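The instructor's notes for this session suggest beginning with a concrete chain rather than abstract definitions. Hand out the sequence below and ask the class to guess, before any prediction is shown, which regions might be ordered.
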Amino acid sequence: MSRRLFLFRHGKSDWNAAFASDHERPLSLRGERDAQNMGMLLASSGTPLPQLVICSTAVRARSTLDLALRAGDWAPEVVMSEALYATSAEKVLQLIRKLPAKEERVMLVGHEPTWSELICNFTGGRVRMPTAAMARLDFPLSRWEDLDFDQGELVWLLQPRFFRKFRYTGRRH
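After discussion, reveal the predicted structure:
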């Protein structure tokens, strides 16, 4: 048995918008388009979709997830978590270890630099997650509680800039 972890970084945010705090910063138009494209891309990839999504409570992360889910027409269980905002790789590891064994495919939606650090810690490689990028990591485990760093395989890392010519049109192809 194995575990599959998807890491999805929020789309590009709008630094020119009026917002009360970093937590409230919204997506830019490019961030919205990239979130939609990535959701549609994952849904049409043939990869079994996440059963559970845990998302940072930051506005830009929640908006990214909402747009991706609607564009891809997939409906996993979704949990919002403040623990994914302004956190560390070690704290995210602790969160993942508490996941129920029945959840074999989990997506986390969050922020840099934590996502790049997680991938590096899980795989030993060097990776940078640009905005709206999505990564899939596989682990040879039967339970999340057994997860540790240096156990993962980076199966793919998708960057939205490679897919921008394939615009979300409101329908799946």
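Then share the key points. The chain is about 30% helix and 20% strand. The mean pLDDT is 94.
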